[in-house]
Each structure stands twice: as structure tokens, then as C-alpha cells.
Amino acid sequence: MSTAALRAEARAWIAAHRDAAVPARGAHVPHDHTPDEHDRRWLDALRDGRWLCLSWPERYGGRALSETEVIAVNEEFARAGVERPRLGMSETLVAPAILAHGTPEQKDRLLPRILSGRDVYCQGFSEPETGSDLARLRTRGVVEGGTVRITGHKIWTSYGRLANMMFVLCRTDPDAPRHQGLSYVLLPLDGDGVDVRPIRQITGGHGFCEEFIDGACAPLDNVIGGLNNGWRVAMTTLGAERAGEITSQYFGYRREFDALLGRLRSQGRLADPGVRRALAEAYVRVLLMRCTGRRAADELRAGGDAAALLAIDKINWSEHHCDFGALALDAQGPAGLVRPEGDGYRIDAFQRVMLESRGRRIARGTNQVQRNIIAERVLGLPR
């Protein structure tokens, strides 16, 4: 099928199912968002229409689309203003690792469970006191017969409260150099030995969790890429995480910008030259995302590697979101600080951006690390 025909199919399907669609949200789904019945029905419709896991081979329920074809579909959903949700980290992070490093038996067993929603994964990489140095992790894995017994502590686990599985990086050979001796293990969270504790955030919700793991077991069949080969598998996951939605994320940031513009217009705040200047600067950064996404699409279409653009893009969108959150509140004056009425700790969309955006300088690779990547790999500067 040509890309034009694929776009036409997507447009026709969206038009036929628009009444059931979930409207597109802002640039990021809130950390503490819990899918409701509307979300679940829309996800079922997308699953039935085969609009999930688009790049997977057809035997596992995908469409075997190329990266440029996936970009085309994402653009059609974004232009229509409706969500094309992913199956969380299950689809975007662990599935690429299974497809690249899993055995045929693992792919046949694990991928259908992801597509059906039976398995929902969270990421067990970050640990207390290790910062961004993943190779310093201290969670241990001991092979006992046909199982791996895991003991350790993971933290900053997005959506851990909604998951029944975790892809864990643990040290299975303590005598090996620090980048070696690691294993990538799929660990059930509903068994003995795992205590999942939600972490309350500044927004009032519990989008992150920490896990205390005390002798929890996973079958050896759940080790992806083989024992002590976890670093290579983890790099596949991190590459998928950093790629994100570089080619279509512009639409979400543009929706947020337009929403702020509308609010400021209704408040009569656009006459302030300082506000207008700050809005212009924010708009330029949104356009930079669009340009970087197009460059990445062109690079991928030509069969190239867009890794350098990912580091540039990560810094651009995360720094923009921090600045945009501050701008949204500052430009509104005192009104920006007033929380919506109602029970509980309510915040509006712009207050949420301001509070949540700070952590995005750390997510998907800290901005300090990204700047080193740009300096060394793009500009050719010495280490």
C-alpha cells in the first residue's frame, strides 16, 4: 500500500469512528492519568481497526509499517485532533526489545499478551542514589534452577500502579565489569516479593511509584537477550524511549499554545508587550519542534540515522515545556495562581504543565547528558 493510500485509509477510519474518539490532549498525558471507560472503548476500537502496534510484523497483530508509514498515520490522527494512544511502555519500550532480542518463542508468547492488554508493563531501571548512571544499578538477580530471583529497589516508575509486569535490569554476574553481567528480565508484579508504593507528586497525584523487591521470581524464559546481555537490550529500550514522537509531537505543543493564547485573549492580557514577546518566543520553539520532526522524517525516509536529532529535540521540547509552564502562569497574572473550585487538590491544565514539566529535563535522558551527546557526536568536540 502506498503512503497516500494509507493516509486515505486512516482519514476514512477516523471519520467513521469520530463519535467514539477521545479528543487529542495536550503535549503530554498527565502523569497520574488513569484511563476511564471512554479511553478503554476508544482503545478497543483502535485495536479492532488495527491502529495499534503499527510497526509490528503482521503475525503478531501489527501492520509491518515502516517508520515513515507510522509517521504518516500519526500525522493523520494528530491533524484530526483525536488521540492515537499507545499501549504505554508495553508497546513503546519493552516490545522493541522483544522484537530485536527475543527468541521466536518469546515473541509468540509475549507480544500477543501486550496487544490484547493482558500484560501492562512499567520500567524497572532507575534506582535510588544512582542518578543517570544506569550501569551503577545494585538490584541483584540470582539464577535458581529455572528462575531468576530478584532483590533490590526501583524508583520513579511511571504508571507502576497500573502495571502487572515490569521489565527489570538487574545484575546477574556481580564479578563482571559494570556494563556487563546485567540481565533484562520481565518480572510479574502480582506475585510474592514485590511491594509497589505510589509516590505522591507535587500535582497531588501518584504518577510514579517505587518498588521494594525481595526475592521475587521470574522464569528464565522471561530473560530477554540471554543472561548477562541486558545492557545491549536496555540500549534498545532507551533508544525507543528517546525517539518518542519526534515527528508528530509538534501538534500537541501547538494545541497547548493555542489554548493559552485563547485564555489570554479572553482575559485581555494580549495587549501587554512583554506577554506578546514571550508568546512569540514560545511559538518559535514550537515551530522548531516541527522543523526537527520533519528533518528526522526526511532522514528516516532516506534510510539514515536520526539519533543526533533526537538529542537536539529532547533538549528543545523539555526546556520549552518548562518555560511554557512558567509563561502560562506569569502571563495570566494573579488568575494563573488560582486553583479550580471543587473537592480535592484541583489544578488546571496550565498549572499542571508548570508543575510536571520540571521532571521532563530528566526523563528520556537528562539534558546534561544530551548536551554531551551533541558536543561529542554532532560537533566533534573532545570528551
Structure summarized in a few sentences:
The protein is an alpha+beta fold and 383 residues long. The chain has helices at residues 3-16, 37-48, 67-80, 88-101, 104-116, 230-243, 250-266, 273-301, 307-332, 349-356, 367-378; strands spanning 121-124, 140-144, 147-158, 165-171, 182-188, 194-199, 208-219, 223-224. The chain folds into three domains: 3-85, no CATH class; 118-228, Butyryl-CoA Dehydrogenase, subunit A, domain 2 (Beta Barrel); 244-378, Butyryl-CoA Dehydrogenase, subunit A, domain 3.
Account of the 3D structure:
By secondary structure, the protein is an alpha+beta fold. It has 3 domains: 3-85, no CATH class; 118-228, Butyryl-CoA Dehydrogenase, subunit A, domain 2 (Beta Barrel); 244-378, Butyryl-CoA Dehydrogenase, subunit A, domain 3 (Up-down Bundle), CATH 1.20.140.10. Helix content is 45%, strand content 14%. The protein has 11 helices and 8 strands. The chain has helices spanning 3-16, 37-48, 67-80, 88-101, 104-116, 230-243, 250-266, 273-301, 307-332, 349-356, 367-378; strands at 121-124, 140-144, 147-158, 165-171, 182-188, 194-199, 208-219, 223-224. The strands form 2 sheets. A 4-stranded mixed β-sheet has the order 1-4-5-8. A 4-stranded antiparallel β-sheet has the order 2-3-7-6, with no helix packed on it. Strand 6 (194-199) and strand 7 form a beta hairpin. The longest helix has 29 residues, at 273-301. The protein is globular and about 70 Å long. The mean pLDDT is 90.
